[in-house]
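Hi U.,

Before I forget, here's the chain from the pilot set. I'm dumping it here mostly so it's searchable later in email.
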Amino acid sequence: MIPADRFFFVGLMGSGKTTLGRVLARNRGMECIDSDHEIVARCGVSIPTIFEIEGEAGFRLRETAIIDELTQRQDIVLATGGGAILDPINRAHLKARGTVIYLHGTPHELYQRTRGDRNRPLLQTEDPLARMTELYHARHPLYLEVADITLDTGRQSVHTLVALLERQLVEITRKGTPPSSPLTAP
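Structure:
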C-alpha cells in the first residue's frame, strides 16, 4: 500500500512542480521540499555551478542521495528535479514510497515558462526549444512509468489544478487505485 502522507511531483522543468507542491502542502498541513533547492542549500552553490564543476553525472549522484532521503519522510510533498526519473533507483523509490503526480506540459508551453531562466543548465543551448522537445521525448515515458496521476497543466490556474488534483487524491483514497487516464481541468 502506498503511503497517503507522501506526494511526489515529477515532470519537466517549468511544469509547476514546486508551485503546485507548495499549494498542496499548505492545503494539507504538510512540508513541501524541492529536491533541487535542497541540493543547492546543502552544497552552498547553484545548480549551474554544480554542473560546471562536477558535470551532470556529479549532480545526478547528489540528486539520487537526496531523493532516497526525502522519499522516506512522512507528511511531505516533494517537487523533484526534471531529470530525477532518469535514474532507475529514483523511479523505484518514488513509485514505492508515495503517490506520484506527473505534471505534463507540451515542450512549447514549458519552453515559454522557462525561456528567461538562466538557472536551467540543460537549456543553455543555441536552440532551447529543440532541447526541451528532446528532453520531453526522452523523459515522458519515464514520467508515465512512475505516475499514479497525470495532470495536464495546460493554461489552467494553479488553484484550478490543485482543486482537480485534490479531487483525484480523494478518489484514489476512496477506491484504492489511481485513475487510468490523464486528467485535465474542465
